[in-house]
Amino acid sequence: MDTQTGRYKELISHHSNWLYVRTYTDVASGTNRYKRPQFNAMMEACKRGEINLILTKSVSRFARNTVDALEALNTLKLLDVDVYFEVENLWLQQQTSMFSLSLFAAVAQEESVIRSENIKWGIHAGFRLGTSKLADRVCYGYQKNEHGELCIHPEHAAVVQKIFRLYLDGHSLSGISKELSACGISSPTGKEHWTPKSIDKLLSNEKYAGNVLLQKTCITDYWNHRQDKNTGELPQFFYENNHPGIIDLSAFEAVQQEKKRRSKMTQNSQGKNVRKSNRFSSGNTLSGKIVCGMCGRHYRRITTHGGDVIWCCAGRVEKINHKCTARTLTQKTIAEELTRQINIVDLHLDFLPQVVEQILVEDEHLHVILREIDAEKKSELLHLQDHWLCRHFLDGDKRAGEILVCLHQPLLKKRLWFLQRASFLTREEIEDLEQTVWLRAFSQMKSYGSQYRFWTWVKQIVRSVFNQTMKQKKKHLPATIYAEPYFQSSALSHNIDGWISDEYVNFLLAVLTDWEYKIVTRYLLAGDTQRSLAKEMGLSKSRISQIYLEALEKMKKKVLMK
Q1: How many whole angstroms from its chain centre is CA 461?
Q2: Residue 558's pLDDT band (boundaries 50, 70, 90)?
Q3: 450, 390 in Cβ contact below 8 A?
Q4: How many CA atoms lie within 13 A of 499 on its CB side?
């Protein structure tokens, strides 16, 4: 290309009345003018009067579509722009040139068609013989080894397996996209976010099962070069076990069946594609769960111009012969009814659908059918509810804080009751301790990272506040020897009333080793955490906890011996 450009620049320099403007080059096919940006830019420059002479190698270089070539040449002739075709030795502005140029353009078009057909024949021959290099085209999750063969890319293959697993677990395409973005996994093109369409294509790619299907698309119109899905126009070629698979064949087929089940479209008796009356729901929204009791179709979520969310039966929304007359529901009505029937806070609408199997709308009533949830799933959902309530409280919703107190107050009172029995705190002091716990919990809410249940975090605050209270009363250590098991169990068999002197505390500490003494005094008296002690002493947190419990056991034996 550079050689040809240099040659024409040299030719222009030999003519004193010629001035070089620029070179216009298109690397794509010349059979479609709309896919030739440089050619179109040249025509626009001619219309602006910037060019009055065009030099080209031949008619086939100018255009390989007869209609486009003649239209462009007529336009240039009207603009008084001359074109010189070097191979044919023709000038556009000559009187007899248009007829000759029309013949050459037709020949160039036919040559292009024949060349295209020859290329297609060669590609199809490679498909039939199994030698096509297209079978080893790299996609996400694979790379090529030194022999040019497909091999697995370990890091990307783990992402592919994760996507297939999430889809089979019931996640939607958008849900998988959010999960990958949350994990910081970049898309195949290096972007921060995955699009649902790219995930859908990945789930449909048979290469991940070790197979290859060639000629999925075909070009039905030679002139527009548009690729359409091959629905039988050309034969397809399937290579089985072409390369190592990332996904088991059974899992891949299960995903295809799941995609078919989730599809919104189906075929009627006439073979036409129609929309399903019901739709898939990933469980993260109420879509697909609200069923009309009159026509059996699902309700659809609609956002009004004012921003309000309403739910209408699909039989009312779609243009069908028999229009359904079921009532329209508002989001607020659904939330209030769910809250009333299953006693879950209406603040957390994302939590509600995960425990609801179906909502049947009949006249003026909503019948809620709940899912069967195991203990592990219930704990996970309660954890999710705690997280949402804390977030609402931090956003300024005081009612969320009130709900948190109502949910966890019984657990806190039970814990404080055991601590009162194990220590010498009065009822008034226990009430003050309870208020201190809640005040500290809400004042330090931002430090609650939602990695565990909110009650687990409150128990840590109870331990800290109790230890500080006992330390102030100088009964900290003897009482803690018996109170500590209440953080693990609810049994108490000894009364330690009266053991409050410093001498007795020293008497108990005397039975400990150096490490036990350091851990007990630093943890109980100085307020250090087990994590900070583990880091300082070079031990694991579990080992620190073990030494601490063994030390308490030693001191308890010392008490019983006395």
Answers
A1: 35
A2: low
A3: yes
A4: 24
Range 555-561, long-range pairs (CB < 8 A, 24+ positions): 555/481, 555/508, 555/509, 555/511, 555/512, 556/481, 556/482, 558/507, 558/508, 558/511, 559/478, 559/481, 559/494, 559/496, 559/499, 559/508, 560/494
198, 203, 258, 351, 523 from 173: Cα distances, Å = 9, 10, 12, 20, 49
Tens of pLDDT, residues 279-336: 555 554 677 788 888 888 888 888 888 878 888 888 887 766 567 888 888 887 887 7
**Measured between alpha carbons, how far is 216 from 201 in angstroms, rounded to an integer?**
13
Identify the sign of the CA torsion 337, 343, 344, 345. Answer: positive
Question: In the Cβ-directed half-sphere of 266, how many Cα atoms lie within 13 Å?
Answer: 11
d(CA 4, CA 22): 13
> Under a CB-based contact definition with an 8 Å cutoff, are residues 347 and 403 in contact?
yes
Encode burial over 209-219: b for 16+ CB neighbours within 10 A, e otherwise: bbbbebbeeeb
pTM of the model: 0.47
Closest to 202 in 3D by CA, of 238, 255, 149: 255
Over the stretch 154-183, which tens digit does the pLDDT of each residue have? 999 999 999 998 888 778 888 888 888 888
Measure the CA–CA gap between 298 and 281, rounded to whole angstroms.
Answer: 11
Q: What is the pLDDT of residue 199?
A: 92
pLDDT tens figures, 512-539: 787 787 777 776 655 567 788 888 888 8
What would the DSSP string read from start to end of 60-110? HHH-S-HHHHHHHHHHHHHTT-EEEETTTTEETTSTTHHHHHHHHHHHHHH
Strand partners, 303: 309
Chain centroid offset of residue 270 CA: 38
Provide the 10 A C-beta neighbour count for residue 82: 17
CB-based contacts of 234-237 (< 8 A; 24+ apart in sequence): 237/127, 237/128, 237/132, 237/213
Spatial contact of 516 and 554, defined as CB atoms under 8 Å apart: yes
- In terms of residues, how long is the chain? 562
User: Which residues 6+ apart lie within 8 Å of 298 measured at CB?
Assistant: 277, 278, 279, 287, 288, 289, 290, 291, 292, 313, 314
Strand partners for 273: 267
Q: What is the mean pLDDT of the chain?
A: 76
**pLDDT (0 to 100) of residue 71:** 86
Provide the token pair at 258: 């799941």
Strand 142-144 relative to strand 150-152: parallel, antiparallel, unpaired?
Answer: antiparallel
Cα Rg of the chain (Å, integer): 39
Q: How far apart are CA 63 and CA 107, in angstroms?
A: 11
